[in-house]
Predict the structure of Circularly permuted type 2 ATP-grasp protein.
Amino acid sequence: MNKNNLFSSYDKLPNTWDEMYNDNAEFRVQYEQFVEYLKNTSPEKLSTKEELAKQLFMSQGVTFTVYNNNEGIEKIFPFDIVPRIITAEEWDKIERGIKQRLKALNLFIKDIYHEQFIIKDGIIPGELIFSCPYFLREMKGVNVPHDIYVHISGVDLIRNEDGEFYVLEDNLRTPSGVSYMLENREISKRLFPGILPKNGVRSVSNYPNFLYRKLKDLSPIVNPNVVLLTPGIYNSAYYEHTTLARLMGIELVEGNDLVVKDHFVYMKTTNGLKQVDVIYRRVDDDYLDPLEFKAESILGVAGIMAAYRKGNVIIVNAPGTGIADDKAIYIYVPDMIRYYLGEEPILKNIKTYQLSKPVELEYVTQHIREMVIKKTDGSGGYGMLMGHEASDEEIKDYLDTVKKKPDGFIAQPILKLSTAPCFIDGKLSPRCIDLRPFALSGVDGVDICPGGLTRVALKKGSLVVNSSQGGGSKDTWVLK
């Protein structure tokens, strides 16, 4: 390996795919130009850039919320200055795989809320659908504009030790993180001026324009009034809500800013009521309409579902899309692709065990040290059991909980997440990463932003990349 001080202590993990080094300890071709820059840059200068990045994040107010931290809930988003670099060839496969997956998932959601052929043909058990907390009976038989249920999605990918990308989960309800992707790129431009164009890095900056156009084109009105509905300042992604609304030039509203009258949705303004045509909502289904879901909710709008069913307002993403990103449904996505599209999946699933099946529960119990167990409705890295880290008592308690409601849990083998170089304590060190590309589906098809959010497990040896669990992020460069 290179003897530059930055690289001297780079301890490549065994049996792990490293994004920068190949198995012969040579730099991968996509990293060569950036490595040349690093070789000619002192650790002190990189530390200065790292400090500048922190100041820029602080001044921009780029934060996230940690609900279980006693020091305070607002945290500056951790950022590693060394980019994750992906070749054009690798990205082409990712892009094709996500488009294929979203096409099948969208057809699945439409089918589930209409004819339910996939259940009748025995591909997916009906009890799995009807017991899912994200299945909305209120959406049964509702025709959505252009038959698009999933307009905005973030598909989580990991690269395993074989170098292949696998889908970890599908985020189809109110996926977050795109504002961090945009901010990471702006920071990179400040830190490394000239290097991005020299490397032929594809732009992500036009995401807000793409998103606004997709939202606008959903409506038959020439100049529709588009708003972003936020739960408010205490939501963990509120920074993202304000950023996207500002960049798109649309109003950021809360539930009490809207009112339904004669089955139309209006926004309260100083000049009276103004009709709203498209709502990009960041409010979960349960809180969207107190007349149909949680009666105590003050985050949504009373009567909005009735207006939606009558076709008087477009809601993005459509209510009920959560049925397709439940972790128990995830297991069947490859079957959906074959069933609806007649194709083999381009991106593979991770081997997943259904703990409601006694044989699979027994297998997972016997191999618990090699497994991660997750709640089917869990998110944010909370509520998981990492078998290789847990004590015997923690495992016993967790399995006791699983056995009370086994259909609420799935298990997967603990994976060897790929590692990427991070600038830590003045040197480069490998840390585990994943990738969340963002896809936009509209009347003109699916567009995938060339990059996405690379999340990093900043704690040495950790596999958990969630910011709320000690993770951070880095810029993702997709080469032309």
